[in-house]
Amino acid sequence: MEVTQQILQQLVNGISLGSIYALIALGYTMIYGIIKLINFAHGDIYMVGAYIGFFAITQAHLSIVPALLISFVVTGILGMVVEKLAYKPLRHAPRISVLITAIGVSFFLEYTSMYFVSPTPRTFPAMFGDVAVTVGGIVINGQQMLILGITAVLMVILTYVVQKTKTGKAMRAASFDTETAQLMGIDSDRIISITFGIGSALAAVAGVLVGVYYNSIDPLMGIMPGLKAFVAAVLGGIGILPGAVVGGLILGVVEAFVSGFVSSTFRDAAAFAILILVLLFKPTGLFGKNTKEKV
Amino acid sequence: MKYLRKNDFIMLGFAVVLFAVLQGLISGRVLNSFWQLNLLIVGINVIMSVSLNLINGYTGQFSLGHAGFMAVGAYVGVVLTTNFHAPFAAALLAGAAAAGFLGFLIGIPTLRLRGDYLAIATLGLGEIIRIVIMNIQYVGGAAGFKGIPHHTNFAWVFFLMLFALFFIKNFVNSTHGRACLAIRENEIAAESMGINTTKYKVMAFTIGAAFAGVAGGLFAHCFYIINPASFTFMQSFNYLIMVVLGGLGSITGSIAGAFVVTFISAALASWPEFRMIIYALALILLMFYRPQGLFGYMEVTNMGIFRRIFRKGGHN
Amino acid sequence: MNFSRKSLKLMSVLAGTMLMGGVLAGCGSSENENEIKVGANFERTGNVANYGQATLDGFNLAIKEINDAGGINGKKIKVVEADNKSEASEAVNAATKLISDDKVKVLVGPAVTANVIAETQVATDNKVPIIAPCATSPDVTVENGSVKPFVFRSCFIDPQQGSVMAKFAVEKLKAKTAVIYVDNSSDYSKSLGKVFKEKFEAAGGKVVMEEAFLAKDQDFKAALTKLKTANADVVFVPAYYEEVGKIVKQARELGFTQPFLGTDGWDDPKVADIAGADALNNTYFSTHYSDKDEEVKGFVDAFTKEYGHAPNVFAALGYDAGKMLADAIKRAGSDDPEKIQKALEETKDLKVGTGTITMDKDHNPIKQAVILENKNGDRVMVAKIMPDAGN
Description:
The complex is a heterotrimer.
Chain A: H1 3-35, H2 42-58, H3 64-87, H4 95-117, E1 132-135, E2 138-141, H5 142-164, H6 166-176, H7 178-183, H8 188-214, H9 223-236, H10 241-261, H11 267-281
Antiparallel strand pairs in A: 1-2
Chain B: H1 2-27, H2 33-58, H3 66-83, H4 88-110, H5 115-134, H6 154-172, H7 175-185, H8 187-192, H9 197-220, H10 233-246, H11 251-267, H12 272-289, H13 304-309
Chain C: H1 5-26, E1 35-42, H2 49-68, E2 76-83, H3 88-101, E3 106-108, H4 113-125, E4 130-132, E5 142-143, E6 146-147, E7 151-153, H5 158-171, E8 177-183, H6 187-202, E9 206-213, H7 221-228, E10 234-236, H8 241-253, E11 260-262, H9 270-275, H10 277-280, E12 283-287, H11 294-307, H12 313-332, H13 337-345, E13 350-352, E14 355-359, E15 365-366, E16 369-375, E17 378-385
Parallel strand pairs in C: 1-2, 1-3, 3-4, 4-7, 8-9, 8-10, 10-11, 11-12
Antiparallel strand pairs in C: 5-6, 12-16, 13-14, 14-15, 16-17
């Protein structure tokens, strides 16, 4: 394979990997945007979503689209429940306590799932045939392109929702200043709950798609992608939807190039190094607005 | 000031008595080796949590890379004792110096970041340290460093822990410590009062990292083998949990946090299926009922019960 | 009153926690004349929990069978379980607890090499033998040329498998070049990669490229794209099933047509589920037994009946460890750990789940190896080797 071809193939690999990070990062960044909480349990919500999809397909014998919808709804509700039970009572507590609670929720989801479904990985039955197209020696997988497409569509829809609809306006208001928003007649609790619902439902979509594409899910599958998605969100400027997608794609491409041309063992180190370098020059991420704090 | 020093003596006396009692229990084989080992782990965890508290609790810099510094101290220490047959004390010192120096180097650029951005940057640095170690064949790579002599005993852990506690307590109560507190409360205000914020942030970070290095050295000489898998970001979370559980900005709290976390983990060892579930629930419930941690900003020396017993000290 | 409400509340929270811990810690150890306590120190949470759990399942099945048949010398075996969180330091902690708190006579586990090495000193100090079901690195039982008296295993060691597969690649597949793709976070994988390279090059082949991944990775395409440029005759992937399935699937998608070679980490029905039967064609791996073998049918059926799914290699080795243990206790005629240690050393022609084993002087079992080929979703035995002959 010649070098240009190899570079292009790695680019394709990176973009498809990055689109998964981006999809998870979307939910991450939405939730962060509204209550400034690093929701470490997000990766585990993604795992639960994958399992719900798995059981919908294998136990209820549904096809992929209804399974995705079921997982979307159930996981969205789960996200709202988690918010109501674990985070809402701590709305006025120090932020770091909420963070510890999020870690607690993460452990809880991981190990209750492990208790019920065992640590053994599960495999999805073949849902739709693997379509791989070869264009000029470069292999492009149909499912990966589907994931990329879904990510792009969801990003556009979400941006529309946040920028143009009434709920979105309320979200932005609550994110800017929860208390003032409340005084303006916005039910902040409801808005936060909705945000958690949407964010978690997005994670579920990612979970099911990844499960089908990589064909293996396990109770700890959310840890690394969750962390990577967080990195992607911060890279793009946390709280900014297009930032999450761009951050995810950059991260994916960097990982692919480091694996392809340096060594996979330094892949994660390179991903973090890029993050730190970007932050040093743009301390609020690529798309972040640098707001000066006033005394 | 006089009040403080008197308290120091009281605490020191208390510590010596505690040491005598515990050492007696160990030598007399009243505590079996499982609880002995857990005493060592508690001590190491106290050093980790109190040093992280200096960074997170007192200076307000959200660091998630503490396990990385521990790894540096551990690996420098074991290379010296195992491959160069250096004395244990020298190895611990070198580990602390290496971790502290790395903290200093890393601290200068990254401490410009704030809040969650700093958190993810330090988490990333911790992971980078771990991945680099994993790729060094000289220290065994991912398989780990084997054949480490067992030097860590209760006396080493206890007195180094005591040193860490008193060092950090006195640092916090010094001019430098006050500067750190000012940074935590309001960085911009602190800066406008003429405090060199970068200097103090880096200072706190370096000291914290150096103590994490000491803890790493003690940890490594306790288990015969170390591998990079013991120093993941999950481990950093664990120390953060101890600090927050005890109370950010309370040394007493760091001790309590390390104690509670280690103790819960040890007590649940017989229930592997439920261990992590119970731990997770305990974490969530403790945060519900005491979001500011067990001790909040309080120290045992400031609490009513302590002052009642040692009333003569004075009134504040 | 100087006792503020706050500090009282605080004290009560602390006291409550300690009390709860004390109660939990208190119960658990009770002596019973009619049982022999065995400690199972496995990875139940953390990164490699799936391997720890599978090994434990196999081990528990063996113990259940033994107890159902009336136990050993009139005594039942009681398994005390402990979790090591997939971490070396926690493995020491769990082993210490089992030995000093629960007073177990023998330790079984952990699954992973590093964790076994970590607990070795504690066990040796207390003269409690360890049976490591699936720790394959040579240094588990031998250190600086001398045997660790209290450590035994029920699996073969890395050099055996690595050389079997290198020989197979050169002789049967006529391979001249190979690429190696190892799991950089696993001792097992790395050491097999090293042995394969040595033996393959000694037999006249050439390893043209080496790459590594990390356990729990999902996407391998970047490194595979790189490996593909080498265009080697065979691809050697000594790794565990979860990653292997994904690697083979993604490699075939990228246009790899070469044969893939693997080791006993591949031995799990999940590989075929993940990769798909088509992608898995033209792949070979070494393992301990073929499930078609009459000798092992009993174990495979019993396991499937008990747990509802077919065993993987970890379960099989855990089962073997259970059988080895029972045999040693029986021959020792007592539950004295040092007598059990002696008996383990003398294990000879013992029928276990995966065949017949004899303990060699380095505390490694001498056992057969088989090479299986994946063919249209089925596994066909292509060779059966006594590993000694493969060196």
